[in-house]
């Protein structure tokens, strides 16, 4: 049983990885296709056969894959293999945040202090109701809620992530990855 499968052959590139934090809340092994590309005219059958064998060997009960909007070949290949389109992810951007004057009345951004983490985790457990874990009727809504609370708790304890809160005209929060990874 391997925690990761990597395929680069015949016009197909695929990386599948176990997702322990989702398995923890859902109660069964979960995997993610963290990388998936299909070149024009590529035959994905051999790659999907290897993926199926890896999923079976790891007793995976749920697989997810995020694709860019332009990834139509990949989307069609996944749908042909039994995947179902569940959600669209938006990545809002606040440009030039660093150019805002300190203390701008419309927005104040600060780090989350340790005593605030649990309250924010509980908030996260109640405010994500329309994403893939709640939209999928096969998954328990309470487990989906716990997933987002754990996301906040794990981010607060991570050296690679920073948990921020925003106050002012546009209150909110976010988890930001350090070291060049795309913020979520």
Structural overview:
The protein folds into two domains: 4-80, Gcn5-related N-acetyltransferase (GNAT) (Aminopeptidase, 3-Layer(aba) Sandwich); 97-177, no CATH class. Helix content is 34%, strand content 24%. The protein has helices spanning 20-26, 45-57, 72-80, 114-127, 132-135, 141-156; strands spanning 4-9, 12-18, 30-38, 62-65, 107-111, 161-168, 172-177. The protein has a four-stranded mixed beta sheet with strand order 1-2-3-4. A hairpin with a 2-residue loop joins strand 1 (4-9) and strand 2. It starts with a strand and ends in a 7-residue tail after the last strand.
Give the assembly state of these chains. single chain
Structural domain count = 2
Apparent shape? globular
Beginning-to-end CA distance, first to last residue:
30 Å
Strand content: 15-25%
If strands are numbered along the chain, what order do they take across the biggest sheet?
Answer: 1-2-3-4
Global structural class: alpha+beta
**Residue share in helix:** 25-40%
Unreliable stretches (pLDDT < 50, length at least 5) are none
Number of strands: 7
DSSP summary: helix tally: 6
User: What is the averaged pLDDT score?
Assistant: 84
Measured on Cα atoms, how large is the radius of gyration? 19 Å
Main sheet overview: 4 strands, mixed
Pattern of helices and strands: EEHEHEHEHHHEE
List the keywords.
6 helices; 2 domains; four-stranded mixed beta sheet; about 180 residues; alpha+beta
């Amino acid at each position: 049983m391997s925690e990761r499968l990597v395929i680069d052959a015949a016009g197909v590139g695929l990386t599948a990885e176990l997702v322990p934090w989702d398995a923890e809340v859902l109660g069964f092994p979960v995997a993610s296709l963290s990388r998936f590309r299909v070149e024009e005219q590529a035959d994905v059958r051999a790659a999907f056969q290897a993926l199926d064998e890896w999923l079976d060997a790891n007793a995976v009960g749920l697989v997810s894959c995020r694709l860019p909007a332009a990834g139509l070949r990949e989307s069609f290949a996944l749908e042909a293999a039994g995947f179902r389109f569940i959600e669209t992810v938006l990545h809002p951007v606040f440009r030039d945040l660093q150019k805002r004057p300190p203390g701008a009345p419309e927005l104040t951004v600060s780090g989350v202090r340790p005593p605030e983490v649990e309250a924010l985790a509980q908030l996260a457990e109640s405010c994500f109701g329309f994403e893939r874990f709640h939209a999928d009727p096969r998954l328990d809504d309470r487990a989906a809620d716990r997933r987002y609370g754990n996301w906040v708790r794990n981010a607060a304890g991570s050296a690679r992530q920073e948990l921020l809160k925003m106050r002012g005209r546009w209150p909110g929060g976010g988890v930001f990855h350090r070291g060049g990874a795309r913020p979520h």
